[in-house]
Amino acid sequence: KIFEYPTMDELAAQLNFVLSHFGLRSVIGLGVGAGGNVLARFALGHPDKVEALCLINVVSTQAGWIEWGYQKLNARYLKSKGMTQGVLDYLMWHHFGKGRLKKGTMT
């Protein structure tokens, strides 16, 4: 059988098993990107098990080909050359969005 990646709803449902495995009655969730989406779905379905959420850059759609290419290119740069200005600009764009920060700056 060919592996099929679970849906966001299936990932959220699996959190019940994680909480049960560790004997947790409730959690404070921190999610970035798709992880934030999964945590939001879990919280909506199980509000009694979530004390609070901190969601960062929550996404509800797949990345497009351009973002996929940027990610692969910058991962390669990060491995071979370290934290270059281009990699830093990509990470800032990825997490904070286009036009939020001046190119080449942290402010």
From TrEMBL:
Q: Which Pfam families match?
A: Ndr
InterPro entries, from UniProt? AB_hydrolase_fold, NDRG
Protein family (similarity comment): Belongs to the NDRG family.
**What PANTHER family has UniProt attached to this entry?**
N-MYC DOWNSTREAM REGULATED (PTHR11034)
Its recorded name reads Protein ndrg3 isoform x1
**What is the species of this protein?**
Triatoma infestans
